[in-house]
Amino acid sequence: QVSELVQFLLVKDQKKIPIKRADMLKNIIREYRNVYSEIVKKADRTLQEVFGLQLVEIDTKRHIYILINNLPQAEGQYLCRGKEKEKMGLLLVTLSFIFMKGSSVKDGALWEFLHLLRVYPGKQHSVFGDVKKLVTEEFVRQKYLEVTPIPLTDPPEFKFQWGPRAEKETPKKDVLNFVAKIQGKDPTFWASQYAEANKATT
Amino acid sequence: ENREAMLNSKSNRLTEALEEANRLFDGVCRAREAALDAQFLVIASNIGREKATELHSEMSAFDSTAFAEDLLTFMGINRTEVEETDDSEDVPGDFLPSDAWQKMGEEAAKYFRRAPTFHYMMGSFKSEPPVQKQRIERQKKASRGRAERAMPAQLKEMEQSHQEATEKEVERILRILQTHFENDPNTPISFFDFVIDPNSFARTVENAFHVSFLIRDGLAKIKLDEDELPIIEPIKPSERVEEDSRAAERNQVVISLNRKDWK
């Protein structure tokens, strides 16, 4: 049962869409519901010890999980399929922007920023294709970003924040260090962001 | 409206607006007006929140334009000399190399604790169970030849019951036999020639089976010719009547044919 669950989780994680507990129960655990938590615990152990991954619950109410990497980032080439690498680049840039702007930005502000990087959500991009779709749909579905409509705005506006997966996969401290590195400054240059980034994480 | 004006941290417009709204509310007596007031409050609180955020980040001003410039530099942008053209469009004169975002991605990967996606090295079977294929209607190929040989033609899988299928087959074979005899009335066909399908033993057996029906029903008869080989010919309608009365003359013959013989 445990190895089946492990395999199930690994395959489900391919698209980086979070995994629901209901799916786990329906497909793998089925009759063994009463020992569900045991099986999950063992699966998590296997994931950690064998694969260096971790099963993390990002929504305790609806019981939704993701897999993250437990091992420290190794230097060197990463084997990535498709445009994964470039998407990560765009994502990091977006997350940094949002964080440095106080953890929440209006969609208009984000698009303006991306324009500066020659990425135009209205037009097809040579690398990313439909950028707007990538940001507002794919990244949101994968829980890297969260998009909420701003009430009573006409035409409707949205605000972007970090999603639960970003919270777990990307420490704010690292993001601040990234910005500092790019700009050739010390992270403490931005005092409040620095304070925010170094708040004790739960 | 006036959102931007209110956002200006130096202005007190928001406070003023709130105070005015309070005053106006005293005069409200209709539900619609109250609703408008509620709407106003929502917008006002949003603006208030935005102002607070702006204040917050103003403490550590973040220059996103500078950030963007630095990102472009990191990605290896080529800043070419641009003549001062009529820049009505926003087309920049410099351009990003094709691996710009890849470079970005390489750097970015270090910052994510992202689980590497799991893929089988050699590819895998499709993960869904195979869909139950509908039983394909069998279409047996017609083996054709203009020769006098009997030709079992297409045998389509009938949706009707086996009973009817057999009858149809029997009829068909009868017709073939009759057609042949029309063309060549005095030459009975060798039974074996008629029945045997050179390509299929199973078909041969089926043909013999169907022919037996013809015999039973008195529509055809098998005789032995000079060489003691069975020949088959249809019974003309006129003869048929006589047959009934000569029921006793019917013989039972068992012809055995196995695969080896067939070959």
UniProtKB/TrEMBL annotation, chain A:
InterPro entries: MAGE (IPR037445), MAGE_WH1 (IPR041898), MAGE_WH2 (IPR041899), MHD_dom (IPR002190). Pfam families: MAGE. Residues 1-197 form the MAGE domain. SMART domains: MAGE (SM01373). Gene3D superfamilies: MAGE homology domain, winged helix WH1 motif, MAGE homology domain, winged helix WH2 motif. Signal peptide: none annotated. Transmembrane segments: none annotated. GO terms for cellular component: nucleus. PANTHER family: MELANOMA-ASSOCIATED ANTIGEN MAGE ANTIGEN, NSE3 HOMOLOG, SMC5-SMC6 COMPLEX COMPONENT. This is NSE3 protein. It comes from Emberiza fucata.
TrEMBL record, chain B:
GO terms for cellular component: chromosome, telomeric region; nucleus; Smc5-Smc6 complex. Residues 188-263 form the Non-structural maintenance of chromosome element 4 C-terminal domain. GO terms for biological process: DNA recombination; DNA repair. Residues 134-149 have a biased composition (Basic and acidic residues). Belongs to the NSE4 family. Component of the SMC5-SMC6 complex, that promotes sister chromatid alignment after DNA damage and facilitates double-stranded DNA breaks (DSBs) repair via homologous recombination between sister chromatids. This is Non-structural maintenance of chromosomes element 4. It comes from Emberiza fucata.
